[in-house]
Structures are given as C-alpha cells and as structure tokens.
Design a protein that fits this description.
Elements (H helix, E strand, L loop, with lengths): L13 E8 L7 E8 L14 E8 L4 E8 L6 E6 L7 E10 L2 E8 L3 E9 L6 E6 L6 E2 L6 E6 L2 E7 L5 E8 L5 E6 L7 E10 L2 E8 L4 E7 L7 E5 L9 E7 L3 E6 L5 E6 L5 E4 L9 E6 L4 E7 L5 E7 L8 E5 L8 E8 L4 E8 L4 E10 L1
Antiparallel strand pairs: 1-29, 2-3, 3-4, 4-5, 6-7, 7-8, 8-9, 8-10, 11-12, 12-13, 13-14, 15-16, 16-17, 17-18, 19-20, 20-21, 21-22, 23-24, 24-25, 25-26, 27-28, 28-29
C-alpha cells in the first residue's frame, strides 16, 4: 500500500468527526509536539502507513519521543515505541520531519542553550534512537523555551529562537545521512526584538516567520536560508496589516495562514500571499481561544485546534477560495467531543484525517484522531 495524497476531494460541507484517542497509553507531559512521518512520501512501506511521532518533556524533565500509528480505518491509535531512557533534560522542544525514518528536535537544554538532536526510527516504529546531534561549539544561549524548527529538505533544517538579548535569531543547519549536524550560518543582528513567533517553509531556501513585535503587532518576515549559507532578511509585512496577535501558529497551503488570539481573546485566521500581502481573514467566525494550533490539510483546506477560554478543545476546518477574502469555516467540534485540555498541537495524516496531541485534564499526553466527513 502506498501513502494516499492529502489532496482529497472536498465537494460538500464537511463535519469534524472524532474517530479515536490514545486513552491512557502515555504519561504526564508538557512542551507537546507532533509530526507525521510519511504524508505523501511514495516510498512509505505498509507498516509505516499512519505513523506519527510526539516529542514531549516527560514528568522526569527529559525529552521523550513516542511513535504512534493510526489504523487505516481511523478507529485505533496504537503506541508503537519510544526512545526509552535516552532523553536528556530539556526545557524547550520543537520537532520536524526529515524523512520517513528521521526527525530532528531543537531543544533548549537546562543550561539554556539551543541544541539539535537527530533521531532514527525503525520501520516498525518500535525503536527510537539518537542518530546524531550538534556539537557544543555550535550550540548557543537562547532567551526562552519558545522554539521553531523547519526542515527545507532531508539535509537542511532552520531553527528560530530568541537570542540572549531577545532578538529573533534564525539559524541554518546541515544534517547528513549519518546524522552529523553542522551550523552553517545565522541572521546575526538582523532580527528584531520579539515576544513570540512561529515559522513555516515557504519554499526550499525560503522561510516565513510570524512574530509579535515588542510593540505587540503581528508582522510576517521572509528570510533567505540557502543550503550551507548565511541567513538574510528579504522583506516584511507592514505593522499596520494586522493588529495585536498572541499565541501565534502558522502553516502553508496554497497560501500562508496564521492563527492568532486577538486582543479580544478570539481566534483569528489571516491569509497572506508569498510576498506577505494580507489577503483576508476569518472575520468573526473564530470563537474564543487561549491557545492555537493550525495545519494544512490540502492546498485550500486547513484545520485548527484551540483551547477555548473555557479550557475545552475545539477543532474546526476552514477553506480558502482565491476569489473570496474571508476564510470559510466549514465545521466545528461537536460539544459531546470536547474535553478539558492544557497544551495543544495538530498534525495532518491521510484521507482527511488529522491528529491532535493535547495535555489532558490530568496533565497526561493524549492523542485524538479526527476526520473530515462529507455532509
């Protein structure tokens, strides 16, 4: 069986159906990340289909990677394996996929330094081991636990953090097949003082970063990140294009879409083109939100997972139409499918399915599978 494309047909009005969850298969966790392992990769083997990885800080303060698989019918979430006791203490985590069997984590160590770790995952998902990591000479102090890591291809990763002076720092890294990691260049003093950020790949060698400036404005920036080269700022959106945005998340489909919590504590999605021109937004459809996560399901379809001001998980789907400025909200979570959460992350899988990774009401990691269904 080969992986099926995310470009599934959406021709009617979908609903958001809760399919399965992981129950009590994981323990207490924070700094929750989730990434899909295969997506549209034509080389995926049958046993790898539906696999994803969560990277979290476990109750002992150490990084824990867990491999999961969603069954083809979407009704079962199975824990396959983890990294055992090989994780080190961390207080910040970001995760990205390098290939079917490799992921990279950017972590903030307990000494306050940024470090990259490359992990290898066995075909059956039962074994997770460190393949390589950055050297002490390439690691540097960062201001907080907030991190982003984006892969440009199987051999290049770009990290985003705040340096010791709270300036945005974009750093280029090379990663070879053996897991050897080398820092290739960074943005130096080109970054502004920021309080929050999120990042996504715009194209090979091009990174888009959404930041909350020191004055509280949402601004998007395009950075050139050529393989093996220095990082340079290309352009920025106008500070007047968006208001106050907090808890920023972002993704890329046919357009860049940011998800933020507004000053009024509502979810707002904003559409941008590759030149960072604002194209439209979700108007008043978002509802209340205290945390946000967003992923692209296809070129014109997006899913958000948020923690509402009532503490409940809400998952919604959205469609972008080029001829319209407002994103169309297609579906929302049934009240019976909601539950209390802390942190939230989301990743796409296959055939209109996505998985949220949340901190449940007991502080434990919990995965929940969702499916877009046609009305």
């Amino acid at each position: 069986m080969t992986a099926q494309s995310l470009q599934f047909p959406i021709t009617g009005l979908p609903g958001t159906l809760r399919k399965a969850d992981s129950g009590n298969q994981a323990g207490v966790a924070s700094l929750i990340n989730i990434v899909s392992l295969h997506l549209n990769d034509p080389d995926v083997q049958q046993e790898q289909f539906g696999m994803m990885v969560t990277a979290v800080r476990a109750n002992n303060g150490r990084i824990k990677l867990i491999v999961w698989r969603l069954s083809e019918d979407g009704n079962t979430l199975e824990r396959l394996g983890d990294n055992g006791s090989s994780g080190e203490p961390v207080n910040g985590i970001a995760t990205a996929r390098l290939s079917i069997q490799r992921v990279v984590t950017a972590v903030r160590t307990n000494q306050g330094r940024l470090k990259l770790i490359v992990w290898r995952i066995s075909n059956n998902g039962q074994t997770v081991e460190v393949l390589g990591e950055s050297t002490a000479d390439d690691e540097f102090p960062i201001a907080s636990s907030e991190l982003s890591v984006v892969t440009m291809n199987g051999g290049q990763a770009v990290t985003v953090a705040r340096d010791a002076n709270n300036r945005l720092l974009v750093t280029n890294w090379s990663i070879n097949q053996e897991g050897i990691v080398n820092q290739e260049g960074d943005s130096g003093s080109a970054g502004d003082h920021v309080t929050e950020f999120a990042a996504t790949r715009l194209a090979i060698g091009r990174l888009t970063v959404a930041v909350r400036t020191a004055t509280g404005r949402l601004v998007l920036q395009n950075w050139a990140t050529p393989p093996g080269g220095n990082v340079t700022l290309i352009d920025s959106s106008s500070p007047n294009d968006a208001g106050d945005g907090r808890h920023i998340s972002m993704t890329l489909g046919s357009e860049i879409v940011t998800a933020v919590r507004t000053r009024q504590a509502n979810l707002k999605l904003i559409r941008w083109d590759g030149g960072l021109q604002r194209l439209g937004d979700s108007a008043q459809q978002g509802g209340r939100a205290s945390r946000t996560a967003i992923t692209s399901m296809s070129s014109d379809l997006y899913m958000t997972a948020v923690r509402g001001n009532d503490g409940l998980l809400a998952v919604s789907s959205w469609r972008v139409r080029p001829e319209e400025t407002t994103l169309q909200k297609l579906s929302a979570t049934n009240p019976s499918d909601q539950e209390s959460i802390g942190e939230v992350a989301i990743a796409p899988l296959f055939n209109g399915r996505a998985v949220t990774a949340v901190e449940d009401r007991d502080g434990r990691l919990k995965l929940i599978a969702w499916e877009l269904t046609l009305a």
